[in-house]
Design goal:
single chain; alpha+beta; three-stranded mixed sheet; elongated
Length: about 120
């Protein structure tokens, strides 16, 4: 049997976790693992410097050959979640809110509560 010395250039590397990192940090993490970063939703990856990675493929911990590409996305696709719309609800809740539904401490319960407990 002939032993071939292991060449560190041929070894596979583990894919780092990139989700949650800013584009700049994700690029550095991939480069530190001798991987390339590519973003299908950002043709110019350098313009996405402060955007955060929301998905990656292959997943963290996967083994890949050195110099391989890791795909990252910065936007959620249609129907894949996200934070939703951040605006005030219209119409606003009626004035009084829970005070109309719940009794204040020390007050007798509302009449509909008494009707429920007696049945």
């Amino acid at each position: 049997m002939r032993l071939v010395p292991e060449n560190p250039e041929n070894r596979d590397v583990r894919v780092p976790r990139l989700v949650g990192l800013m584009a700049v940090d994700a690029h550095e993490a991939a480069r530190a693992h001798d991987l390339f970063l590519t973003a299908p939703d950002r043709p110019d990856l350098r313009a996405a410097a402060v955007d955060h990675v929301v998905r990656q493929y292959p997943p963290p911990g996967a083994q890949m050959p050195r110099k391989s590409a890791v795909y990252v996305w910065f936007d959620f696709g249609e129907g894949e979640g996200g934070g939703g719309i951040r605006e005030p609800r219209v119409p606003r809740p009626p004035v009084g809110g829970l005070r109309r539904e719940l009794a204040e401490p020390g007050e007798p319960p509302p009449s509909y509560c008494a009707a429920l407990s007696s049945s």
